[in-house]
Design a protein that fits this description.
The chain is of the alpha+beta class. The chain has one domain: Immunoglobulin-like. It is 17% helix and 42% strand. The strands form 2 sheets. Strands 5-4-10-11-1-2-9-6-7 form a 9-stranded mixed sheet. Strands 3-8 form a two-stranded antiparallel ribbon. It is globular and about 60 Å long. The mean pLDDT is 86.
Length: 156
């Protein structure tokens, strides 16, 4: 007699891995707001949507790394701008009063002077975002790691 598969997955580590896959697929579909890397005063900008499934405080963003055509942007040159407030990405984890709404578009501002040489008309962009969860969903260290990529057009 064949044993029936369990209806509930009680393995917390396995459930955490499943959650990471599901949330990353949603974020992969919706992260880039317009498919462009645009020239901005003092650098470049990419518009991104909040990848988390609800609104959250900016402090949940504990890590951001952007790589364009293999060129990694240093943390000191990466900023997130939300409703006109430009914040160094390393400092974002300290902002408990700034809400980043579900689906709200923010700007990743990249102040790396060497990025101009790495850009092409079409660019492979990788964005790594670690978001600390407010509740335990079973993710390791209560952190949801998004590892996203896409092709963006450079608007010079």
């Amino acid at each position: 007699m064949q044993q029936e598969a369990p209806r509930v997955n009680k393995n917390q580590e396995d459930r955490g891995k499943q959650g990471i896959v599901v949330f990353s697929r949603v974020a992969q579909r919706d992260l880039f707001a317009n498919g462009l890397i645009e020239k901005a005063e003092g650098g470049w900008r990419i518009l991104v949507r909040n990848p988390w499934y609800t609104g959250t405080y900016l402090s949940t963003v504990t890590f951001i790394r952007v790589t364009i055509n293999g060129h990694s942007i240093a943390e000191k040159d990466t900023y997130i701008s939300l409703r006109g407030q430009l914040i160094p990405s390393a400092y974002a984890k300290n902002l408990h009063e700034l809400w980043w709404g579900m689906g709200e578009v923010a700007e990743l501002f990249l102040a790396d002077s060497a990025l101009s040489e790495a850009l092409a008309p079409k660019n492979e962009v990788k964005v790594d975002i670690d978001m600390r969860t407010a509740f335990s969903y079973g993710f390791p260290n209560d952190t949801l790691p998004y590892r996203l990529s896409g092709e963006l057009e450079a608007r010079l």
